[in-house]
Design brief:
The protein has 2 domains: 30-144 and 267-289, Response regulator (Rossmann fold, 3-Layer(aba) Sandwich); 146-265 and 298-326, 3-Layer(aba) Sandwich (Rossmann fold). The chain has a 7-stranded mixed beta sheet, with helices on both faces. Strands 2-1-3-4-5 form a 5-stranded parallel beta sheet, sandwiched between helices. The protein has 328 residues and is of the alpha/beta class. It is built from 13 helices and 12 strands. The longest helix is centred in the N-terminal third of the chain and has 20 residues, at 3-22. Helices cover 42% and strands 19% of the residues. Helix 10 links the parallel strand 9 and strand 10 (261-265). The radius of gyration is 25 Å and the shape is elongated. The relative contact order is 0.13.
């Protein structure tokens, strides 16, 4: 190679290197987080930590190798459609939709992959038609709430053995609750219980439901799992304590807020599992081909302080089975 050719080759290589360096660094994957709750809610933070931990274990670090776009409805559910549309306009790679936010995400896009969290039976609620192959652009982890209602009534009966009349608080706007109510009725017949259904969609209706429970002289209360009830957990626990009403919930945070006891899927485990779905989708998997996971770990949480305030003695056999005992 003569000198002129060599210099030409060298110059070309240098220009190519400079051009490559001038190119923007590859776009970081962007994941939208759509939640009906508030980022300041202490309930939310452990879930975010579990999700981020799952991402880190798969090699993703927020702000360095992945960007997370948060959209909070702060309990104002009518904001969810607009927030979902914002994420679609941002062209996020995946939307992680929490609880009832998945419906807003589903209406906002049929192309961007959606991974849902904390959703009750996705078939019953019409999200998908098949758990093994959900199809479309949606997959995620399910709480399968209706399967647990019978167990919740059974545990409540163990703590309050003389109870015969139990109120059940549901949200008529929650599409999973009709099946849960039917399951509760079947379980109640087996346990020899009578149920009194109560409904509430907001704070005022929660207050009225407790007035109705007191008027009907119910002996205990079962609160079905619901986003609105979770965000009003302090108020519900306070009303139950005021009326001296032993209450069972489906989420541990109710018991931590002062409720008597809770039994349900461990949602922190599920939150961490969401990262696996996100990782697979970012690597090319189609959400419709990823089976929906059902819970495998369940928590029983008992609040001894509340039990003592109600004059209840928790059987030792139940305390030994509890995953967490809140002791004053």
């Amino acid at each position: 190679m003569n000198r002129r050719a060599f210099l030409g080759t060298l110059t070309g290589a240098l220009l190519a290197a400079l051009a490559a360096r001038a190119q923007p660094i590859g776009k970081l994957p962007r994941v939208g987080i759509l939640s009906p709750g508030s980022g300041s809610d202490p309930f939310i933070q452990p879930h975010l930590d579990a999700f981020r931990r799952g991402l880190r274990e798969l090699g993703y670090i927020e702000g360095q190798t992945i960007n997370l776009e948060y959209r909070w409805a702060d309990g104002k559910y009518d904001r969810l459609p607009d927030l979902a549309t914002e994420l679609v306009h941002l062209k996020v790679d995946v939307i992680v939709a929490v609880a009832l936010a998945v419906r807003a995400a589903k209406r906002a896009t049929q192309t961007i992959p959606i991974v849902f969290a904390a959703a009750d039976d996705p078939i019953v609620t019409g999200l998908v038609v098949n758990l093994a192959r959900p199809g479309g652009n949606i997959t995620g982890v399910s709480m399968m709430g209706h399967d647990l209602v019978g167990k919740q009534l059974q545990l409540l009966r163990e703590v309050v053995p003389n109870v015969s009349f139990v109120a059940v608080l549901s949200d008529p706007a929650n599409p999973a609750h009709p099946l849960q109510l039917r399951t509760a009725e079947n379980a109640a017949q087996t346990l020899g219980l009578r149920l009194h259904p109560l409904e509430a969609q907001n704070i005022e209706e929660i207050d009225r439901a407790f007035v109705a429970a007191k008027t009907q002289h119910v002996g205990a209360l079962l609160v079905l799992t619901d986003s609105m009830f979770l965000f009003q957990r302090d108020r519900i626990a306070s009303l139950a304590a005021k009326d001296r009403l032993p209450t069972m919930y489906g989420l541990r945070w109710h018991a931590e807020a002062g409720g008597l006891m809770a039994y349900g899927a461990n949602q922190l485990v599920q939150s961490q599992r969401l990262a696996v779905y996100v990782d697979k989708i970012l690597k090319g998997a189609k959400p419709g081909d990823l089976p929906i996971e059902q819970p495998t770990k369940f928590d029983l949480v008992i609040n001894l302080k509340t039990a003592k305030a109600l004059g209840l003695t928790i059987p030792q056999s139940l305390l030994l089975r509890a995953d967490q005992v809140i002791d004053p």
